[in-house]
Amino acid sequence: MTWRLYRHFKGNLYLGLGRFLDSENKHAFEAYICLYENDLAQEWIRPFEMFHGKNSDGIQRFSPIGRVRVAYPEDEAQILIQLWSNSQQDTSLANFLDQYKHSTQSLQGTRFLLETQNGELIGSVIAIRVRRGVIRLEELDIQKSFRNEGWDTLLARAVTVINRDESRQ
User: Fold this and answer.
1) What is the 3-class SS of 22-41, one letter each residue?
2) Considering the entire predicted model, what is its pTM?
3) Contacts of residue 83, Cβ cutoff 8 Å, sequence gap at least 6
4) CB of 44 within 8 A of CB of 31?
5) What are phi and psi for residue 19, nearest 5 degrees?
6) What CATH number belongs to 71-167?
7) Is residue 159 pLDDT above 90, yes or no?
């Protein structure tokens, strides 16, 4: 599963849920969720063309900035190499991988990846469901070249929102 991340032209961040059709007239809508506190609502829909179009000043209304997705088994090697290279440990990659295989974190939860639009890995986090509506985030890691830009907060907020929505089902 993949979710798109968007920045509104006024600066706020949103998690795109995808394209939905009105059952009566087949008009397309984009559904999206605020990744910030909003007293009006957290979940919104907008006509698809309007969401992906430009405002009256000719500025792109919502610009894609990345995506969040569930990690696949084939992503594991890249993730572990990133975790090792970002770690402060003075250990070899072989020792790091051996230690990781024996940790309980590698066996729990769902790992989510944060990527650029073209698929470059920005970071990852493990979400462990504690109980309905409550998750714990583990191993939040952002590549060094993307640090201090707010990607860690964005990833944590997006994964929290994704898991909140899934807990309602």
Assistant:
1) CCCCCCEEEEEEECCCCCCC
2) 0.82
3) 96, 100, 124, 139, 141
4) yes
5) -95, 135
6) 3.40.630.30
7) yes
In the chain, the N- to C-terminal Cα span, in Å, equals 16
Q: Quick one: pLDDT at residue 75?
A: 80
Query: What value does the CA radius of gyration of the chain take, rounded to a whole number of Å?
Result: 18
Residues 6+ apart with CB under 8 A from 163: 127, 129, 135
Its CATH class, for the domain covering 2-64, is mainly beta
Query: What pLDDT shows up at residue 74?
Result: 83
* Domain coordinates in residue numbering, the chain: 2-64, 71-167
Whether residue 31 is predicted with pLDDT greater than 90 in this model: the reply is yes
2 or 76, which is more confident? 2
pLDDT higher at 117 or 103: 117
What is the per-residue pLDDT for 82?
75
* Residue 153 CB neighbour total at 10 angstroms: 13
Question: How far is Cα 164 from Cα 169, in angstroms, rounded to an integer?
Answer: 9
